[in-house]
Amino acid sequence: MIKHFRSFHKDLCEKDGSCKPLGIKAKKASPLNKPPDVNLLPAEWTWLKQLVKNSLKHDRDSTYPSHFADYVDGLTADAGNECIHALTHALYEWWVATQPGKCDMIGGKLPLELSAHATWLASPDRKENDKEHFVESKFSNIRIVPLKFNTLYSFIQVYGDNTRSALRELYLETKKQEDINVEAWLQELRALPKTNSKNVVYAMYHHAKLSTERRCGKINKPVPDPPTYEEFFENVFAVALKRQQGRCAITTFTMLRNLTGRKCFQMSPDRILVENLSYWEADNIQIVCCAVNVTDTKRQQVVEVDSETGISPELFRQYIGED
């Protein structure tokens, strides 16, 4: 009926097809198709476009010293579809010009992917976190990286464009190191008061309690009573650390690296079975570097990546090129 009205009563309609007296809304804009020179599947193009949208939304919702302001060519967080379409196209052209194989920009050799369940999903990372994604020169603050490494305390923040080669060197160096004296280290940790800033185990315990509450709340499941800190230390943390011989369960880096002050090496509890929400069973917990505990949703702006799609030891070795 609306189509008939627009056809036979054009004089009563606005240019956009709307007629306010009759409550007829404007025509919807025609969908913009994937540019013909973009070598992606339509679904991959849509995913890349969503990454751009989410980056703009992140900038709009965040407060920086430079404040969210003018983008080149008038682009803003509320930009229309045509503007975002054009920016996505420019981003794609810049990416493939820089990395013809669509690899990441931190030295990786594996092509990145653009789909929800991809192993190496692409993610835009800001070089300087106090600035927006797209600044005056569009892409000067952007690099495309694997989502699995784009965490709140990532290795990328420390090693930048040389992340992959730096991780490879650390891995090869670690393989030559002797195992640390875990029992002696546990004794030192036991002596630390809960309030001591160096007590990383208490920080892990506190995080585990909050995470359990959040996850149980999402599925309306009763929150189990947590053990005491002392019980967690002896029955979960100490058991897992001894089992792993003081090394990260994924990277094999010695966990003593967390004492360097770099938060990417900070110890973090990771659930082995994602369907088991408990952090209080030693068999379900492994101690890993914070940078590879892929559960951070603030920096991973598209999907929540959890243990079932996180980084495994095999994936880590594949990425750094162990051989």
Strands, helices and their partners?
Elements: H1 2-8, H2 42-61, H3 81-98, E1 122-126, E2 142-146, H4 155-159, H5 163-176, H6 182-190, H7 200-218, H8 229-243, E3 267-271, E4 285-289, H9 313-320
Helix pairs in contact: 2-3, 6-8
Explain how this protein is built:
The protein is mainly alpha-helical. It folds into three domains: 1-29, no CATH class; 42-150, no CATH class; 164-320, no CATH class. Helix content is 36%, strand content 6%. The strands form two sheets. A two-stranded antiparallel sheet has the order 1-2. A two-stranded antiparallel ribbon has the order 3-4. Helix 2 (42-61) packs across helix 3.
Oligomer: single chain
Rg over alpha carbons: 24 Å
Provide the succession of SSEs. Answer: HHHEEHHHHHEEH
Number of domains: 3
The N- to C-terminal Cα distance equals 67 Å
| Strand order of the biggest β-sheet | 1-2
Residue-averaged pLDDT? 83
Largest sheet: 2 strands, antiparallel
Bulk shape? elongated
Helix content: 25-40%
Q: Helical element count?
A: 9
Keywords:
36% helix, 6% strand, 9 helices, mainly alpha, 323 residues, two-stranded antiparallel ribbon
Question: Nutshell version of this structure?
Answer:
The chain is mainly alpha-helical and 323 residues long. It has helices at 2-8, 42-61, 81-98, 155-159, 163-176, 182-190, 200-218, 229-243, 313-320; strands spanning 122-126, 142-146, 267-271, 285-289. The termini are far apart.
